[in-house]
Amino acid sequence: xxxxxxxxxxxxxxxxxxxxxxxxxxxxxxxxxxxxxxxxxxxxxxxxxxxxxxxxxxxxxxxxxxxxxxxxxxxxxxxxxxxxxxxxxxxxxxxxxxxxxxxxxxxxxxxxxxxxxxxxxxxxxxxxxxxxxxxxxxxxxxxxxxxxxxxxxxxxxxxxxxxxxxxxxxxxxxxxxxxxxxxxxxxxxxxxxxxxxxxxxxxxxxxxxxxxxxxxxxxxxxxxxxxxxxxxxxxxxxxxxxxxxxxxxxxxxxxxxxxxxxxxxxxxxxxxxxxxxxxxxxxxxxxxxxxxxxxxxxxxxxxxxxxxxxxxxx
Length: 314
Description:
This protein is α+β, with helices and mostly antiparallel strands. Helices cover 44% and strands 15% of the residues.
């Protein structure tokens, strides 16, 4: 599948209040987004309070903390919580980050039209209408999170991520709370395997994360270069060539970071459990059964997986 980009949705900003109003796609649910972002109390890279999302970003070397709330059924409001940016490019950069984070440039009408004719998928899209894949913009963060999550439960994965972020990341204090940025590869210079083992990482995972940091810091690996291939299959092969990156990890990164709608982490345990429940089975379906089922959802596998994951949280 070729990589395509779409035009930005409309937005405006009020210079007096320093707020941005961003229009949202018809197929978007702020409530479902809040539900997804609230799934772990150990999450350290954003906070949800009183139906508002708080997240720290770095834009043009400036650290900004934003507050996102629902403005109406067709727009959200973005407020700069800790500063009022002076540069118009900060406003536009913030909009671009939110667009990518919530996958707003994706036209979901074809996905919903396809789902309407499918007994299983139609139930999910009806129950969770407006759910969009919440992304991970930074390649290093996406790869680290995928590696951290390999072969452990989600709760412990969040615990390890929190330890990693709070040990190596940057933060700001605002209104008595701490907001964190995921560490950048340059911040891992001088870190050794035992430093991560002290946080309860396995030796192998520590080696993988430090190896990925070196590849990105040296310029050998970058999100821009992967997207520049113009082909998700080519990007997948480059990811698979990295030590510690197997098919599940590569497809997870394709799904959450590179935004491949056909990414398909077929070996995911959560996916298998969700299908077992949806199909009312005592046992998980085989890989062959999963492939056969997903053959009807071609080019939208990532969204089908995301909706199946969502069904586990109901």
